Structures are given as structure tokens and as C-alpha cells.
Amino acid sequence: EAQVTQNPRYLITVTGKKLTVTCSQNMNHEYMSWYRQDPGLGLRQIYYSMNVEVTDKGDVPEGYKVSRKEKRNFPLILESPSPNQTSLYFCASSSAQGMETQYFGPGTRLLVL
Amino acid sequence: SQKIEQNSEALNIQEGKTATLTCNYTNYSPAYLQWYRQDPGRGPVFLLLIRENEKEKRKERLKVTFDTTLKQSLFHITASQPADSATYLCALERGGSYIPTFGRGTSLIVHP
């Protein structure tokens, strides 16, 4: 089954404790991205990647890092999480030929205390 | 920067009626506009895409229109069903930017 998976689905952590949210897709997609969704603000893109070793900032990259060492994986790293990073995070992927159609993961709900 | 406006109030309609959702945008005209469906606690699911040179697109009970003069897209669900109840998001992207802008979404509630 074609899908985008994220882990963990739920995470409670404390300020300053580094964490990584993993994202993996099995569709051989070139393009992957991370979003956060907050009430009243909608989905906002954090980072995106056009292919392996190619990443770029989205609208709200501050406080986040990403890497794209393999085509299928695109982890989101919070080096020093803060309470304002409490949010619902989504990973998405799409093919180079059909970049407009993004497939979203199930989401990771993060609470930073 | 681009702004998208979707009605923040929930749309309540009766089963069998046509639901019409609105997406208005400011500033530049996007290369294309998309509509997604999102259920509570789940990721958005792509529904339809319409390009700047297209006026209308259909898929089964769904229809999207795109008026670049009014800077508006309308999303219609005909013969609505309770299972259509969800939040619907519109998103647009200027060609080549790879950074889509999403609206906040409109909640649709279809009553049996």
C-alpha cells in the first residue's frame, strides 16, 4: 500500500530535549516536505526537499532541521524544542512529475512542556 | 505575501443538497489551486487541482471553479452525504515556488 508514515504519532517532551520525528514514504517520490498545523493558522510549510541531499526552507523553518540522506526518509529534527513548537506536524511527499499532488502522513502531535 | 481566505464558520447543510465552499486569495495569481479534505486527527487528502488557465474541473460529485478575475475558487459537492462531513482546505502555489500556501479550512457538516 502506497503511504507516508510518521513516528511517533504522539510525543510529550520537555524544553531543550532534542527530538527527531521520522518520515518515510514507499512511493519513490522525489519531493518531500514538513508542515505544522496550528489552530487558526492553517498548514504552514517548515522545510522541503526536492531530492536526496537537496533541502530548502519553507515559511517557518526557525528551530527546525531536516536531512535527506535517502530518498524514502525525511526526518524532522528539533535540536532544542520550545513550548511554541507544540503543534501537529505532517510530512508529505509527491513525485517530480506530479508535484502538485501531495500525499500526507497521519500526523505527529507534539507537546513541549 | 499571499493570503487565502476560507469561511471560518462551519457550513451546515441537509443531506442531498449541494455544498458550496469558497476560497478567496489576494496578491498574485497562482499557477494552480488545490482542494484537500481533512478529517479530525488525520492528514489532508488531495481531492482536485485546477490550473490558472482552466475555468472548471469535475470529479464524480465534486466540482471546482477558478475565477482569476475575482481571485476566487468555488468547491461544490453535489448530492451531499453525511460521510462528506469534514474540513476542506484550499491551497495555492505560484509556479516554481514549491512552497504552497494553505487556507485555514472550512468545516462542512452534512445532516441526515
- Using DSSP, what is the number of strands of chain B? 11
Mean pLDDT reading of chain A = 94
Low-confidence stretches of chain A: none
Estimate percent helicity of chain B: under 10%
* Count of separate DSSP helical elements of chain A: 0
Estimated structural class of chain A: mainly beta
Structural features:
heterodimer; A: 113 residues; mainly beta; 7-stranded mixed β-sheet; 4-stranded antiparallel β-sheet; globular; B: 112 residues; 6-stranded mixed β-sheet; 11 strands
Describe this structure in words.
- The complex is a heterodimer of chains A (113) and B (112).
- With 113 residues, chain A is mainly beta.
- Chain A has no helices and 11 strands.
- Chain A has strands at 4-7, 10-13, 19-25, 31-38, 42-51, 54-57, 65-66, 76-78, 87-94, 103-104, 108-112.
- In chain A, β9 and β10 form a beta hairpin.
- Chain A is globular and about 40 Å long.
- Chain A starts with a strand and ends with a strand.
- Chain B contains no helices and 11 strands.
- The mean pLDDT of chain B is 91.
- The A-B interface holds A 4, 31, 35, 40-45, 48, 50, 56, 58-59, 90, 92, 99-107 and B 4, 32, 34, 41-46, 49, 89, 91, 93, 98-100, 102-105.
In brief, what are we looking at here?
Chain A is mainly beta and 113 residues long. Chain A has strands spanning 4-7, 10-13, 19-25, 31-38, 42-51, 54-57, 65-66, 76-78, 87-94, 103-104, 108-112. Chain B has 112 residues and is an all-beta fold.
Write the layout of secondary structure elements.
The complex is a heterodimer of chains A (113) and B (112).
Chain A: E1 4-7, E2 10-13, E3 19-25, E4 31-38, E5 42-51, E6 54-57, E7 65-66, E8 76-78, E9 87-94, E10 103-104, E11 108-112
Parallel strand pairs in A: 2-11
Antiparallel strand pairs in A: 1-3, 3-8, 4-5, 4-9, 5-6, 7-8, 9-10, 9-11
Chain B: E1 4-6, E2 11-14, E3 19-25, E4 32-38, E5 45-51, E6 56-59, E7 62-67, E8 72-77, E9 86-93, E10 101-102, E11 106-111
Parallel strand pairs in B: 2-11
Antiparallel strand pairs in B: 1-3, 3-8, 4-5, 4-9, 6-7, 7-8, 9-10, 9-11
